[in-house]
Give the backbone structure.
Amino acid sequence: MASSMFERYGGFASVSKIVLSFYDKALDSDVIGDYFEDIDMPNLIDHQTKFIAMAMGGPASYTNEMLRQVHADLEIDLPAFNEAVSLLQQTLEEFELQAEDVGVIIEDIRNRAQYIIGT
Amino acid sequence: MKLDRFNQMLLESVGVGLAILDLQSREVLFANRRFIEWLPGTTSVGQPVDEVLPDIDYKSLEGKVAEGELYVCESTIKVKRRSVSLALQFTKHTHNDKPVLILECQNISKIKELEYMIESYSTMVEKQNRTLQREKERVEKLLLNIMPKTVYEELKTFGVTTPQKYEAASILMLDFVGFTDMAIADDPAGVISELNDIFTAFDRIMEQFGCERIKTVGDAYMAVSGIPEATPEHAQNIAKVAVLILRYIERRNAAHTNQWKCRIGINSGTVIGSIVGVQKYVYDIFGPGVNLASRMEALSEPMEISLCEDMHALIEHDFRFIERGEHEIKGFGKKKIYTLDSAHSMVSMNTSF
C-alpha cells in the first residue's frame, strides 16, 4: 500500500507545525478570524489537527457528515471558505509540499465545500 | 516609578514580561515592553493589574505573598480573538523601602497549543489503534477458521509454516448422494441453506470430540482427529463423529422434506498437514492416509460408514462392524473392508441436537 502524504511528510512531528501555522493564519485573517472568536483554543486546535491530518491522509477521518456538523452553526459563506482554502494552500506551500500534493489536498477540500459552507 | 537607566534597559531586554506592582493596590508601577505586548490591556501605569488579569485568586495570592512565598498561577486572556496563556509568578520585594510586588509572566500559548494538539492527536491515534485491534481480531478469527491455532501461531511468528507430519491421525471424508440433482432442483438457495445448516451441525459434533474440520468442497466434508494436537483416541474420535453424523442426518430427515443421504469413509494413517498458497491460504492435509479415506468413502453405500483393516485394528473392540470381505483398492492393493454398524454401536455425546 502506498504510504500516505501524512507519512511521507514526516508524520505528526512535521504535520504539527503545519497545523500551528495554519491556526495562526486563520486567527490572524480578518476574513475568517471572527469565526473563531468564541471557540475555545482546545476545541479549535483539536479541529485543526484532525482537519489537517485528514487532508493529508493521517489517522483521522472526518466524514462529510462530521464536517457538516462541526460547521453547521458557523454559517460559513463562500468568501470565508475560499479564504480558508487559500490560507491552507499558502501554509502547505510554505512547508514545501510538492505542488502535486497541495493540489490533491486543495481539490479534496473544495469537493467537500457543500458540507462546510452553511448558507 | 523611577528606575535608573541601566536597570530599565535590563528589564526591557529580558525575555519575560515583568511588572512592578504596588503591594496593596496592585497598581502597575512599571511594566516592561514584553509585558505590555502580552497584556495589551495594560495601557497606563497606575491601573490595577486585577483589571487585566481578572481570573486570578487574589485572596490566596495575598496570603502567600504575606508569608514571603512565591505565588504561581496560570491565566488565559483573550487578545483580539486569540487566547493567550500566561504563566505568572508573583513575589514580594522592597524598592526604596517601599514594599512592591514583582510580577513575572511567560507566554505559554504555544506550549498550550502544542499540548492540546498532542492530546487531540493521541486521541485520534488511540481510536485508530482500537479500530486496528478490532480488525486484527476479526482477521485472526477468519484465519482460525481455515487453519489450526498452532499453525496460525507459527505463521504469525515466523511468517511461514513448515508442513508437519502426523504419524497417528484419522480422517473422515463425507459427501452427499445426489446432491447435484438436489441443488439444481426447484429451490437451489434453500438447498444450499440446508447444506449450510448441516455442515454447521457437523462442526459442532467435531468440536465435541476434538476433531478439526479441514475443508468443505461443494457437498464434500473433510475432518481429522490427531491434527494438530496428537491424541491416542484419534481413531475412536473419528469413528464416533461418523456415527453421530449418520444419526443426526437420520433425525433431520425424519423432520424435513429434503432427504439427505451421505456416504462416509474413515481411515487412520500418516498425514501431512500444511498451508498451501501464499496469497490465498488454505490449510490442507495430504498423504496416503487421506487418499485411502477417500477410497473408503467411494466404497460406501448411502448412509454407510466404510473403513479398511488398518483402522479396524485400532477400534475393533469399541464398535460393531459388518465384514465385507477383501476388495482391490486402487493404489493400495487388496484390503479387508468393513462397514461400521452405527445402529448397534454405543456412542453418546454431551450435547443433544
Summary: Chain B touches chain A through 20 residues (CB under 8 Å). DSSP finds eleven helices and 13 strands in chain B. Residues 109-146 of chain B form the longest helix (38 residues).
